[in-house]
């Protein structure tokens, strides 16, 4: 079994810096909605946050396009430099010397531009320097570190954000500078273009970007993958939308008493928090162990068993009001999550065109945003349908995702077989 030390230096740097950045970032950014709501009002804050997401999304398309032309490292160094400047100014805007919500928001937009540029290049770089043999381990380790950093960051941020926001921004600035130094002086360029050298003639960049992503969208295998991923990830975003509201309305409040006499009321909101915590703890505890155990089995069988567990688990959480059944269902869908996620990410690496990897990663970024929208739609639809119907919809959505993934796998492996036969 490959260990962390055997991974390419770029991968190790990316995992370490991402872990540190996410810990501190999670102490701050999830709470910015509350901050902006207090400063601007709930309606304006909501609009500003939507604008922030859209800017990051659209910049991501340009970031993916340009990283496939001039290289991963150049984009990452530039993006991280922008990030350092944005976070530093945000620290000043929340310091004892200045309190400016508008400057904070403006720099948050600049930070989103940086993320939009950085992410497609960074994701493509991970594929560039990994191999089919170590990708599952790499993605499992990355997934584990993400969940651990988010869990730690959320706990610390909940305690410190309101009273020590300036200090948190200072720490994030230091981490951003550390990341920039590592990316600039320790990372190596992983990009080797097979494209012909671009001539000096003037090019219509907008048209070139559109043509670039048009060719990506004509990859039927990849688009099946995208649609399947949207179906599956949309279930995850139900947890803090419809499922959260349902538990708040339907879950019977009960008093839990512990051995030392301590007791408290378990409300629907607290139940939701417990389920989220259970999921995070299980991911942190089981990821590496489960990845090792699954090496002896066929990847496709593991993948689809994982998807089935994941789908059934969410369907149960969408229906049940029993505390023990809910916690059991979270165990089921978490195991499913751990089984399918590394294989799904490895498959994306396999189907992405070698010469357009950043563009594929940028397009894959749409999956997350569309799944979030689907999560919000679930909240609206759930206002008119009973919980058992919503659970049935979750089941059908998961099954549809499985069918689409099966078709994507079938197309890819058929193409691979033809290429090997021809060769």
Question: How do the strands and helices of this protein lay out in sequence?
Answer:
Blueprint: H1 9-28, H2 32-40, H3 42-70, H4 72-93, E1 94-95, E2 98-99, H5 101-129, H6 135-160, H7 165-185, H8 205-217, H9 220-236, H10 239-250, E3 254-257, E4 263-266, H11 268-293, H12 299-317, H13 323-351, H14 357-382, H15 387-422
Antiparallel strand pairs: 1-2, 3-4
Helix pairs in contact: 1-6, 1-7, 2-3, 3-4, 3-5, 3-14, 4-5, 4-7, 5-14, 6-11, 6-13, 9-14, 9-15, 10-11, 10-14, 11-13, 12-13, 12-15
How would you characterize the overall build of this protein?
This protein has two domains: 1-191, Growth Hormone, Chain: A; 212-255 and 263-423, Growth Hormone, Chain: A. The protein is mainly α. It has helices at 9-28, 32-40, 42-70, 72-93, 101-129, 135-160, 165-185, 205-217, 220-236, 239-250, 268-293, 299-317, 323-351, 357-382, 387-422; strands at residues 94-95, 98-99, 254-257, 263-266. Strand 3 (254-257) and strand 4 form a beta hairpin. Helix 2 (32-40) crosses helix 3. It contains 15 helices and four strands. The relative contact order is 0.13. The longest helix is centred in the last third of the chain and has 36 residues, at 387-422. The protein is globular, with a radius of gyration of 22 Å. The strands form two sheets. It has a two-stranded antiparallel sheet. Strands 3-4 form a two-stranded antiparallel sheet. Mean pLDDT is 86; it is low at 194-201. Helices cover 79% and strands 3% of the residues.
Number of helices: 15
Strand content: under 5%
Write the H/E string, N to C: HHHHEEHHHHHHEEHHHHH
State the total count of DSSP E strands.
4
Helix-residue proportion: over 70%
Shape: globular
Q: What kind of sheet is the major sheet?
A: 2 strands, antiparallel
CATH homologous superfamily of the largest domain? MFS general substrate transporter like domains
- Could you name the ranges where pLDDT drops below 50 across 5 or more consecutive residues? 194-201
Decide which structural class fits the backbone. mainly alpha
The CATH C-level name of the largest domain is Mainly Alpha
- CATH architectural category of the largest domain: Up-down Bundle
What is the third-level CATH name, the topology of the largest domain? Growth Hormone, Chain: A
**Strand ordering within the main sheet:** 1-2
Mean pLDDT: 86
């Amino acid at each position: 079994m490959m260990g962390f030390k055997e991974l390419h230096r770029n991968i190790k740097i990316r995992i370490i810096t991402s872990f540190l950045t996410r810990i501190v970032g999670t102490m701050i950014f999830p709470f910015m909605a509350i901050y902006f709501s207090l400063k601007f009002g709930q309606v304006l804050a909501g609009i500003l946050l939507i604008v922030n997401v859209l800017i990051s999304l659209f910049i991501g398309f340009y970031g993916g396009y340009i990283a496939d032309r001039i290289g991963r490292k150049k984009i990452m160094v530039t993006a991280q430099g922008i990030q350092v400047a944005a976070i530093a100014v945000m620290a000043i805007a929340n310091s004892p010397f200045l309190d400016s919500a508008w400057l904070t928001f403006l720099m948050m937009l600049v930070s989103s531009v940086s993320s939009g540029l950085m992410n497609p290049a960074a994701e493509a770089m991970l594929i560039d320097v990994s191999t089919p043999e170590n990708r599952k381990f790499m993605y499992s380790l990355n997934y584990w570190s993400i969940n651990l950093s988010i869990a730690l960051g959320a706990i610390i941020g909940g305690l410190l954000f309101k009273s020590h926001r300036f200090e948190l921004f200072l720490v994030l600035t230091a981490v951003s500078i550390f990341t920039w130094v590592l990316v600039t002086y320790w990372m190596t360029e992983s990009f080797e273009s097979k494209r012909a050298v671009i001539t000096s003639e003037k090019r219509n960049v907008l048209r070139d970007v559109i043509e670039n992503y048009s060719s990506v969208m004509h990859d039927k295998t990849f688009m099946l993958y995208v649609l399947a991923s949207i179906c599956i990830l949309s279930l995850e975003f139900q947890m803090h939308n419809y499922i959260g509201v349902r538990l708040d309305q339907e879950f019977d409040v009960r008093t839990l008493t512990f051995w030392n006499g301590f007791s408290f009321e378990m409300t629907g909101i607290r139940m939701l928090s417990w389920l989220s915590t259970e999921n995070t703890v299980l991911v942190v505890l089981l990821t590496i162990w489960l990845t090792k155990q699954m090496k002896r089995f066929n990847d496709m069988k593991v993948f689809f068993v994982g998807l089935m567990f994941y789908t059934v688990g969410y369907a149960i959480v969408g229906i049940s009001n029993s505390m023990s059944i809910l916690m059991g269902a979270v165990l089921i869908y978490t195991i499913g999550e751990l089984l399918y996620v590394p294989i799904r990410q490895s498959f994306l690496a396999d189907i992405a065109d070698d010469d357009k990897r950043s563009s594929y990663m940028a397009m894959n970024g749409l999956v997350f945003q569309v799944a979030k929208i689907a999560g919000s739609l679930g909240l609206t639809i759930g206002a008119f349908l009973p919980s058992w119907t919503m659970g049935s919809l979750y089941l059908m959505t998961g099954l549809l995702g499985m069918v689409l993934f099966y078709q994507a796998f079938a197309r890819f492996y058929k193409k691979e077989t033809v290429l090997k036969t021809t060769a």
